[in-house]
Design brief:
The protein is mainly α. The protein has one domain. It has a two-stranded antiparallel ribbon. Strand 1 and strand 2 form a beta hairpin. The radius of gyration is 23 Å and the shape is globular.
Length: 315
């Protein structure tokens, strides 16, 4: 256990720019955007008269409607963090085993008292747990800072932020849903993670090309063969990868449900799973036959990466 923790710490410190600095930059962008919004209003709105009228109008609306808008808005605020997190994890895993071979440090790391299994496991856990938790913490802090900023601005305009929106919001529920979404997405994405680690273990150079080109070629060939048989591509418009992406348990889009419009899991283009943001819908994906097949695929990819890692040299 101590060795695994040491390896995970190594992954963090070697990738702290991606794991730590990136979400902080996103938080800074959100905060600066809110300040620019207030400064712009101050520039064009004489003594914030229009904003005061807007706040009075909002205060007159039904409390349930305000609570619903706050809830959905807080969920959708996580989408930007989630998208950037996906890119960070993608490129981190793509270089996880390749970089050791590229900079010729692989023999040094293999000489340490840590097995190749633990090395791969630490990289997988860093992608599945460490990076999502750091992004989630920064997301929560950003949410708190924005609520404080708006509260100060509303008080300065003579309104009560508690009655206007603070008492109506339930940030803990939103934060919990986002965290569960991150963890279920980590499990749902295991086939992709396994593939990226496998590519990182064997790619002689430009691992991004090796990661993307084979699936693209196979997908195009599948579409072509199906077209020759049926003269249509309707059944393969999204394909396996499209369905996997659309059914993600990650909060990443919006959809109409229960006569209202709000945040959605994945992209609501399929009816295989429910897209409303609930823990039940997230768990429905990871306790499914699709996930069982995905785990088998991930196991094959990771086993291949381990086999290649054990036989890897600095060349």
């Amino acid at each position: 256990m101590n060795r695994m923790l040491a390896l995970i710490k190594r992954e963090f410190w070697e990738n702290k720019g991606a794991f730590r600095t990136t979400p902080l930059i996103i938080a800074g962008i959100f905060f600066v955007a809110m300040l620019m919004f207030l400064i712009t209003f101050n520039h064009f709105d004489n003594e914030f008269q229009s904003l005061k009228e807007l706040l009075r109008f909002i205060a007159q609306q039904d409390a349930g409607l305000r609570a619903k808008i706050l809830y959905e808005g807080n969920l959708e605020m996580s989408v930007f963090f989630s998208m950037v997190l996906a890119f960070v994890v993608f490129f981190y895993l793509l270089g996880s085993l390749y970089d050791d071979r590229k900079d010729r440090s692989i023999l040094f790391w293999k000489s340490l008292p840590a097995s190749d299994t633990m090395t791969i496991g630490s990289k997988l856990l860093s992608a599945m747990v460490v990076a999502p938790v750091i992004f989630w913490i920064v997301y929560v802090l950003t949410h708190i800072m924005i609520m404080l900023l708006f509260s100060i601005a509303i008080m300065a305009l003579g309104e009560n932020p508690w009655t206007l929106f603070l008492s109506l919001s339930n940030p803990f529920e939103v934060w919990g849903l986002v965290l569960v979404s991150y963890f279920t997405q980590s499990i749902w994405a295991l086939p992709l993670y396994g593939w990226l680690i496998l590519v990182s273990a064997f790619a002689p150079r430009i691992p991004l090309l090796f990661a993307i080109l084979p699936p693209v070629v196979l997908g195009v060939l599948e579409l072509w063969v199906d077209f020759l048989h049926t003269f249509t591509v309707n059944d393969n418009l999204f394909g396996l990868f499209g369905h996997w992406f659309a059914n993600s348990p990650l909060i990443m889009s919006a959809d109409e449900h229960n006569d209202s419009f709000g945040a959605a899991l994945g992209i609501p283009l399929t009816s295989d799973y429910g897209h409303q943001v609930t823990v039940a819908n997230m768990f429905d994906r990871i306790f499914s036959t699709d996930m069982l097949i995905g785990l088998g695929i991930a196991a094959v990819f990771l086993a291949g990466a381990l086999w290649l890692r054990r036989r890897a040299t600095e060349s």
